[in-house]
Structure formats: structure tokens, C-alpha cells
Amino acid sequence: QVQLAESGGGTVQSGGSLKLSCVFSGSIFRNNPIGWYRRAPGQKREQVAAISSSGFAIYQDSVQGRFTISRDNAKNTVYLEMNNLKPEDTAVYYCNDGDNPGRYYWGQGTQVTVSS
After folding, report:
1. Which contiguous run of DSSP H or E holds residue 93?
2. From CA 112, how far away is CA 40, in angstroms rounded?
3. Which of 64, 68, 61 is nearest to 19 (CA)?
């Protein structure tokens, strides 16, 4: 089974930066697309970025140019570098399968709070 552990969140002012990490257990990490998702207050969960096993990345329009997703297969870790954060980025951030969210049990997520 796969377990996910997100970390790196925190509270920052508008324009600040954070780098999130997601560590996967198991041996299938390198063969699966991985996505970052977020759930903002009062909103449904949405995908913000995803990366294939070969490194091809896609982004939601609202974070394009501000967020960068990357992965280190040797460390079973996916990252999300977030720059120029905005209050609307405030959410709990999760990682999961990039094509099928919920394929793996959701981790606890990591809280990102951006103040104005």
C-alpha cells in the first residue's frame, strides 16, 4: 500500500514563498503521475499541478508561472515550489495520483495560509 506524507506548509504574507514536499511509501512512485491538490475554505478540492513519471508537468492557470512541481524518484518525493503567494492560495495542500485523485488514501495535507 502507498502512504503519503505532506510537509512544508506555513503562514506567509502575500508575495512570500514556500516549498512543499510529499514523500511516498511503496515502490510504484516512479511509475505513476503525481499531482498536487488543494482545498480552500468553502471550496471543493482542485488539482493545481501534476507531473508524469518522465517529468512532463502541467499547471492550473491560476498558478502558472508562480508554482513549480518537480520529483525525485530516488527519494520517492515530489515537491511544489510556490512563489509570489496570494491570499487565494490559502488552502490545505495534498498529493495523490495525478490522473486518479483518491487512488491512494489521502494524507493529512499541509496547511498554507497567505495573509494580506
Report:
1. strand 91-97
2. 10
3. 68
3, three cell numbers: 502512504
- The x, y and z cell numbers of residue 96, run together, are 495523490
Each residue's pLDDT expressed in tens, for the chain with a length of 116 residues: 788 999 999 999 999 999 999 998 876 666 789 999 999 999 999 999 999 988 999 999 999 999 999 999 889 899 999 999 999 999 999 999 999 998 898 999 999 999 99
User: Rounded to whole angstroms, how far apart are CA atoms 95 and 84?
Assistant: 21
Rg (CA), the chain: 13
Distance CA 72, CA 74 (A): 5
Give the Cα separation of 79 and 9 in Å (integer): 12
CA distance 93 to 112: 7
End-to-end alpha carbon distance in the chain: 40
